[in-house]
Design a protein that fits this description.
The protein has about 110 residues and is an alpha+beta fold. Helices cover about 60% and strands about 10% of the residues. The chain has one domain: Arc Repressor Mutant, subunit A (Orthogonal Bundle). It has a three-stranded antiparallel β-sheet with strand order 1-3-2. The longest helix has 23 residues.
Length: about 110
């Protein structure tokens, strides 16, 4: 049972493990946004952003709602926003170590341990 829970938790955390997805989450942390707004602010392409939004939604991190022809994306709940804030606080404490870690340049650095 514990292994299965860890597998699901790891899958959930992969939602946070991509630069573009983190940018999206930071953008919608305080205010819902449409795909067009996200694309404009990130300077990405709509297809790529839509794939990341689908990943985040599939992981249960974000939700969407439709209003007319627009789809708005927001964090699932306040706890996700709190988790992002906690991650930012922890990151600020370890930023220098992370930047200096040579293994961080590898795509899957921790899986080889």
């Amino acid at each position: 049972m514990l292994l299965a829970q860890c597998d699901v938790k790891a899958k959930f955390m992969r939602g946070f493990s991509d630069k573009t997805r983190l940018q999206i989450l930071e953008l919608i942390k305080d205010e819902e946004k449409t795909v067009s707004q996200i694309v404009d602010q990130i300077k990405g392409n709509q297809s790529n952003i839509s794939q990341h939004l689908a990943c985040l939604k599939g992981c249960g991190i974000i939700v969407s709602r439709q209003e007319g022809k627009f789809i708005y994306y927001s964090l699932r709940n306040d706890q996700i926003g709190h988790l992002l804030n906690v991650m930012n606080d922890v990151f600020n404490q370890v930023e220098n170590e992370v930047a200096a870690c040579e293994k961080n340049d590898e795509l899957d650095c921790c899986s080889k341990v």
